[in-house]
């Protein structure tokens, strides 16, 4: 088992990333990027087989297959999973479920429609900032943040687990989850399903959800240690 290492505080990097995302929203570059692949009559790649069947459907299936494997590894750990306690292995699974659940919940209450629903791309909706929660844009809504990208971004919470055991492995895990999330998000953007900001905020939300699960697990660990000391006394 790898020796536990000192935790790295995620506060300042998270704050910096949040500021960068807010700046991106304020820049208005979402529409500009969408206009590079969208036309007044829609998005030519909307039904593309590679983007739709392989990346969209296949990405979701692969993601849930990995989650099921991680669930099995709670009881039968292999490879690096043997470095972790059972509680930490549970945390890996719960952080993914919490992240995907958080994104799904936000989408449920969002009135923001997808790019392919906008009038400038052949739809019926007007472009309204996704932060104007009470303002409908005339379309079907429920498009913010990007749900599909969370199939990969949901794994970023694993960094909070692995950082205590192997910082190098934790970095690799985080980079892989971020890269996969961006690839899935860009694929959906090319189809007109999401703006780039939808993908970026999905990643941010998954990260915060993973952080929250880590905080809850820390409380459980501390309570367990306190109970053991009390019983030993």
Write down the overall mean pLDDT.
94
What class would the helix/strand composition place it in? mainly alpha
Domain tally: 1
Q: Give me the Rg, rounded.
A: 20 Å
Shape annotation? elongated
| First-last Cα distance | 29 Å
Count the beta strands: 0
Helix content: 55-70%
The helix/strand order is HHHHHHHH
Low-confidence stretches: none
By DSSP (H or I, 4+ residues per run), the number of helices equals 8
The biggest beta sheet, please? none
Strand content: under 5%
Based on the model shown, name its key terms.
mainly alpha, 233 residues
General description of the model:
The structure is a single chain. The chain has 233 residues and is an all-alpha fold. The chain has one domain (17-232). It has helices at 11-27, 29-37, 49-75, 86-109, 150-153, 158-162, 167-191, 196-232.
Strand and helix layout:
Blueprint: H1 11-27, H2 29-37, H3 49-75, H4 86-109, H5 150-153, H6 158-162, H7 167-191, H8 196-232
Helix pairs in contact: 1-8, 3-4, 3-7, 4-8, 7-8
In short:
The protein is mainly alpha-helical. The chain has helices at residues 11-27, 29-37, 49-75, 86-109, 150-153, 158-162, 167-191, 196-232. Helix 1 packs antiparallel against helix 8.
């Amino acid at each position: 088992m790898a020796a536990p290492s000192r935790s790295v505080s995620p506060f300042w990097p998270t704050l910096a990333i949040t500021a960068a995302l807010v700046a991106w929203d304020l820049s208005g570059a979402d529409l500009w990027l969408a206009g590079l692949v969208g036309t007044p009559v829609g998005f030519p790649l909307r039904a593309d087989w590679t983007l739709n069947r392989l990346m969209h459907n296949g990405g979701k299936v692969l993601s849930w297959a990995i989650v099921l494997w991680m669930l099995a590894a709670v009881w039968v750990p292999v490879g690096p999973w043997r470095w972790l306690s059972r509680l930490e292995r549970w945390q890996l699974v719960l952080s993914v479920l919490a992240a995907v659940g958080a994104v799904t919940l936000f989408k449920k209450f969002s009135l923001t429609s997808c790019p392919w629903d906008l009038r400038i791309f052949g739809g019926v909706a007007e472009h309204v900032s996704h932060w104007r929660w009470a303002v409908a844009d005339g379309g079907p809504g429920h498009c913010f943040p990007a749900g599909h990208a969370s199939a990969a971004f949901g794994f970023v919470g694993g960094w909070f687990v692995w950082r205590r055991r192997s910082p190098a492995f934790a970095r690799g895990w985080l980079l892989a989850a971020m890269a996969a999330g961006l690839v899935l998000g860009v694929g959906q953007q090319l189809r007109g399903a999401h703006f780039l900001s939808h993908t970026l905020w999905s990643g941010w939300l998954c990260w915060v959800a993973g952080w929250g699960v880590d905080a809850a697990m820390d409380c459980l660990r501390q309570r367990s240690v306190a109970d053991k000391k009390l019983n030993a006394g």
